[in-house]
Amino acid sequence: MITRPAGSAQSDSFTHRVLPYDGMDQYLDGVLPFLLDGVDAGDRVVAVCGTGRETLLRDALGPAAPNVEFPDPATWYAHPPRTLADCLHDAADAARSGYRLRVLGEPVWATRSPIEVAEWQRTEAVTNLALRGTGASIMCPYAAALPAGVVAAARRTHPETVHGARAVTNPGFMDPWAYCERHDGEPLPEPPPDADTFKIDLPDLYWLRAYVGEYARRTPLPEEDLQRLLVAVTEIVTNALRHGEPPIVLRMWTDASGGVPAFVCEVGDAGRWPPGTGYGLVPPRPGDAASVGRFGLWAVRLLCSTVQIRLGDGGSVVRLRFALPPSADTNGA
C-alpha cells in the first residue's frame, strides 16, 4: 500500500487537463485557445507533437507560431521519470522568472509495450503531485481512436476535461496516490524457473556488484546500462539490508514477455517498508533543502527503464528492468 507523504495536497495553481478529440476540428478547437492564451500571456509555450501535428499547428497559429517551441517528441517522451523531472525543472525555472510553463503534450501510445503504457499512465497521475504549486499548465490531447483503456485511464489521471475553450471538472479523476496504489497492487509475473538466484547474507556490496556485473556481461545489456544497473542494485540492496527482513534474495534474468526485451534484476525481502516513502514516485523539488536525503528511490527510477515495486504480507519486491536492443537474444543468460 502506498502511504501519502505529508504535505502532498494539490494546488489549484497548477492545471492538468485532458482533451478528448475525434478529428482535427475538435483537436484545434481545444488546442489553439490553450496555445494562443499562453502566447498572449507571455508564457513559455511548448507543443510536443508529431511532424504532421506540428505543421498543422504552425499554419493555424500564424504569426504566433514563432513563440511556440516544438521539441522532438521521441526525445521528450523517451523516459517517464526523466520527462517528469525535466518538466518540473522547467516549471520551477519559469515560476522563479515570473512567467508560466504551458505544455501541450500528446504521448505516443500505439508503439508502447503494455509495461511502458502503464508507466506513462502512472506518470500522468504523478504529474498532479510533482507540479503542484508551480503555476504550470499542461494539456494532453487523447484521440478517440486510441484503445479504450488508454482513454479511460486519461480520465482518471487528469482533474479537468477540455471541451473547446472550456474546461470542466472531470468526475472520473482519481486521487493520484489512490491511482498509484491500484496500479502497484497488480501482481507481477513470477520470475522464470531458470532465473539466477543469489541469497544475500552479508552486506558485502563490492562482491555483490561483482556478481551482478559478471552475470549481466553475459547478456546483451549495453555497458552504459550495466553501470546504471550496478548503482541501482546497490541502492536497492542497501535499502533491503537497512529496512528489510531476511531472507534477502536477488534474482536476474532476461525477458521478452513484456513486449520489449529486457534485463531484469529483482531484490526481494521478507520485510515491510516504513510508511511515507511514496515509492520514490515524486521528483525532489529543485533547490528544496527538505528533499536532501530522499533521492534514493527516485534516482533508481531515473537509472532504470522501469522500476516495479510490490509490497505485501509476504514481503517487499523491487524489480529493475533495463531495455535491451530490439534484436537481443534473451535466451543466452
TrEMBL record:
Q: Name one GO molecular function term.
A: protein serine/threonine kinase activity
Q: Residue limits of the Histidine kinase/HSP90-like ATPase domain? A: 207-322
Every MEDS domain range: 15-159
Known InterPro entries for this protein?
Anti-sigma-factor_SerPK, HATPase_C_sf, HATPase_dom, MEDS_domain, RsbA-like_anti_sig
Known Gene3D superfamilies for this protein?
Answer: Histidine kinase-like ATPase, C-terminal domain (3.30.565.10)
Q: Does the keyword Amino-acid biosynthesis apply?
A: no
**Record keywords, A-Z:** Kinase, Serine/threonine-protein kinase, Transferase
KW Transferase (keyword) present: yes
What protein is this chain from? Sensor histidine kinase
The species this protein was found in: Actinomadura spongiicola
